[in-house]
Design brief:
about 425 residues; Rossmann fold; Argininosuccinate synthetase, chain A, domain 2; 5-stranded parallel beta sheet; 5-stranded antiparallel beta sheet; elongated; binds arginine
Length: about 425
Amino acid sequence: MNEGNARESKVVLAYSGGLDTSVAIRWIQEQYRADVLTLTVDVGQQGELEGALERARRNGAFDTRLIDAKGTFVREFLWPAVQANALYEGVYPLSTALARPLIARTLVEVASASGAGAIAHGCTGKGNDQVRFDVAVHTLGPGLRVIAPVREWNMNRTDEIAYAKTHGIEIRVSPESPYSVDENLWGRSIEGGRLEDPALAAPEEVFDWTGHPDDWPREPEEVTVDFEGGVPVRVNGSALDPVQLVQTMNRLAGAHGVGRIDHIEDRVVGIKSRETYECPGALALLEAHRSLESLVLPRDLLQFKALVDRRFADLVYEGLWFSPLREALCAFVRSTQEVVTGSVTLRLHQGSVRAVGRRSDYSLLAHELATYGTGSRFPQELAVGFIHLYGLPNQLAHARAEAARSARNPEENEPRAARAVLPTPS
Ligand code: ARG
């Protein structure tokens, strides 16, 4: 296998510090006779990244890089997703999917700065992430070869551990977990183990950011989020930088159990799979944004934007971030957001988040039109004529259908003749 692999003298490996990518360092060296430079992109995953880097060096990495991309992640990827109310299949806020193009772009940048001929990632051949990485790298770094050890080698977890032993590879001694977890500021994705049976409820042990249901406060908590131009800027009145803001929302909403998602998901490669997520901050901010939009955008724009939003979410999921269509959809969305400025009150309680109040200087809700109380200025007398014309197409179609029916069945007991469709003026 892998004949002709000797060409790559240097490979940049997207490295998380987990078992797959630890074993991959040595495997790439052996299979491709290449130096391996590991790249760890900090998108807000928890865990000890510096320790993982030291381990990579001890395991033979020629060089290691750690790049803090949290700010870029929020500003360039998460905020456009908030503006587009991005939820794949209506439920998944795309936490893993949004980070992949940023990691891929950073891989290409590091490869070109270091003169590497290839990049490598630890994705399997069954998921979406390989699509996202490969498509982005082919687009941004067309000369680069993509190596995907896990897709190429025939090792399961036990084989990988055995390979690590025989090759003296230091792996983190963690209690055996059957789950595969991907984490960043926008959420956690948990797969594998018992979760693979969609009939079984996710065991408590898979959750980390949402505490235990016994610890969720009995009383609801209200949190206000202020938006400027469709982007959240303040929480409970305090201005926060984008990264702090997302972290704060994760903490506040997570404490109430908000953000657990149990989804039967349709992957790009045609597989259906059961996916479990914890995305407290994402779901809270998306709820707040959606609610504010409903106050400030007119109906036709809301309806049309929902189509664009949906297309944006599909496209991000499908790994097409670096595409003219994504840029065009974002340009449209941005053009609608100036008025999405105002404040939303969220209520967090026992796993749920709901917008319970919203205000904006750009509100389209005119109290003197909508009120059932005193002082209404809505011209109710105009409603009668409006309703006649509004319903006219249906009235005509119904009358025609009735006329055709009585022509077909002349002996029908009570032939329903076509009636005059317009009211006689009073
Ligand atoms: N199904 C999700 C997605 O395609 C999450 C994938 C998470 N990956 C993982 N190693 N757990 O975006």
